[in-house]
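Figure-free illustration: sequence to structure, shown twice.
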Amino acid sequence: MSIQGHILEVRVEFGVNFKQSGAYVCIIYNNEVYQTSIAKDGGTSPRFHENIRIPLVDGLRELSIVVRRRGYFAEEVIATGKVQLDEVLREGKDHSLWPLQYQCRRTGATRSGGQIKLAMEYERPRVTATPCPQAPAAGSGFHPHGRPDFYPSTEFPPPTPPPRYVHPSFHSHPDYHYSYHAPPSPQPPSAPGSSAYSGYYYGHCRQG
């Protein structure tokens, strides 16, 4: 996880068994120097109780500590040390005593330069869940990846009913007259020789 630009809160609490009194603390990070004021009390175990805000940089997880003292002619380095930031970045806080050392000028040997108490706190960024995009309405033609919707909606409007068919009745025919004639009733067939024609012919013949 990136720490670029996030703020590390460092409270310089106190020192323990410094070589000399009247010291102040410099914290070096990313070529920037952050320093406290000169301790007025405590002697070789001075109290500082000062807060420093340090912008973090990716890939740089170490502070350099330099304890200095102002002499009559020049400033003197009385102790140095390294502070690792892994725990505070992982847990969000680290209140520890860190060892210091100094180098003897005559022999060049490294000796203990006391300890320094730092209260470091780091607010880890909160990871917010990204809401899932809502599914588009069916048949809208929208695709979350910019592709057309090849599967249109299967919902169709109800079919339009066909026009009602009315069979033309004889009452609506324009040439039909509304007069009704009953059909003639059928006549029973006449016996042979008994028809009107046959009687007429027979009488006519007899008269002749």
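We now fold a second protein in the same way, so the two outputs can be compared directly.
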Amino acid sequence: MHDYKVSRLFDIPFKTKHVIIRQEVMWSPPPANKVKFNCDGSTVGAQSCGAVGFVIRDSNSTFLGAISSNIGHATALEAEFSACLLAIETAMEMQLNQICLETDSIRVVNAFRKNTGIPWQMRVRWHNCLKFCNNIDCSCVHVLREGNQVADALAKNGQGLAMFSSQWWSTPPTSILAILYRDSIGLAYSRLSTVKFCPPFVFEVLFAVFALFFKLFDVSGSGCTWFF
């Protein structure tokens, strides 16, 4: 507001932020006879405490299960990989043979397709999971963050769990009911972007110029007197 008043005082064009809807993003169910795992990782704090979450749904958008898990210290990339690994390991336990993994991490998708870029401490676990995926009907696809809201909420929930503990739901927790319903009816999320405006430092420079002016000149009603 202060910058705006100054711009009006000196008749300086003032550019404001404009929000633009770039894309409509929605979650889509998997093909018939397949189940979809939406996975996400989360990190918070200076020590990067990591958590993961995933949700399982079928082609009718029916909820089949979900998990939140605290994985301790982890980088953002490690959290994303851990979420996908945990989803695959759960698919093994459930003896599923037609699955679709969906994540908002392009690096995880590239690792799945090209087997590159895996964090070194996860390589053995990753290759074991990939071996399982190669023997079943399994795909890994990228989704924009707006289409991965349920997994995002579950991963953030994991931040509140005890270190290295997990919570499994066989019925939907109340915290994600609204998002699940929104996904089931195909209601889209808007992916927004903003138009940048003139940065605040422009006004700081302007103030500095005026401060210098008043320092060099004695401004009075009769005119200006040099100090030097």
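Summary for the second example: The two ends are 37 Å apart (CA to CA).
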